[in-house]
Structure formats: structure tokens, C-alpha cells
């Protein structure tokens, strides 16, 4: 079965950096989209950044210029480099995957989710 395991969350001061990782297993589809989503307390889950198996990416305006995504197709791993973090980036961050072509950040389009990793940014 499909499994996603995130790691790398933690606490950092505003302006700092963190790198999140996601390891996927349990599927052999060659066409998929993997992304990072986040959910702050009391808010809906939102899409942050996505990359597909053709290395095309989509990024939310709120993190553009600060977050980058990378992907190792051979290992099916996903990395999120977060720079210049702000307190409003504080949230639980989730890795997700869906099969087939998709370049949007709609939460409901993704079928499989990890357990999440907490990112806390203090001012």
C-alpha cells in the first residue's frame, strides 16, 4: 500500500531555514504528482508546492521566492527547502501524492497523505 513518511520539521526563529523530506513507497506508477500541504490551527489545509513526474512544479504565491521543491524519482523522495521562514508559516506540513497528471494545489485532488511534521516559526 502507498505510504508517505515525512521528516525534518522543528522550531526555528523568523528568517531561519528548515528542510523537510518525504519518502514514498508502495507504488510503481510512473506518472504522479507529489506535493507539500500545510494546516495551521483553526485553518483549512492548503497547498504549498507541488512537483510532478515530469519535474514541472506549482508554487503558492505565499511562499514564492522562499520555498523550493526537489524530487528524486529513483527513490521517490520529495524535499522542501524553506528559507526566510515567517511566523505565518507555522503549521503541520503534509506530503501527499496522487496518480496521473495534475499541477494544481487542491487538497481534495490528492489521495494519499503522510502523517505530517510540525514546523514552528517564532518571531
What do these coordinates show?
There is one protein chain. The chain is mostly beta strands. Helix content is 0%, strand content 52%. It contains no helices and 11 strands. Strands 2, 4, 5, 6, 9, 10 and 11 form a 7-stranded mixed β-sheet that branches. A 4-stranded antiparallel β-sheet has the order 1-3-8-7, with no helix packed on it. Strand 4 and strand 5 form a beta hairpin. The mean pLDDT is 95.
Distance between the termini: 40 Å
**SS strand fraction:** over 45%
Q: Give the quaternary arrangement of the chains.
A: single chain
Q: What's the helical proportion of residues?
A: under 10%
Strand runs, count: 11
Major sheet characteristics: 7 strands, mixed
Low-confidence stretches: none
- The Cα radius of gyration reads 13 Å
* Helix/strand structural class: mainly beta
Mean pLDDT: 95
**Count of alpha/pi helices:** 0
SSE topology string: EEEEEEEEEEE
Shape: globular
Short account of what is shown:
The chain is mainly β and 123 residues long. It is built from no helices and 11 strands.
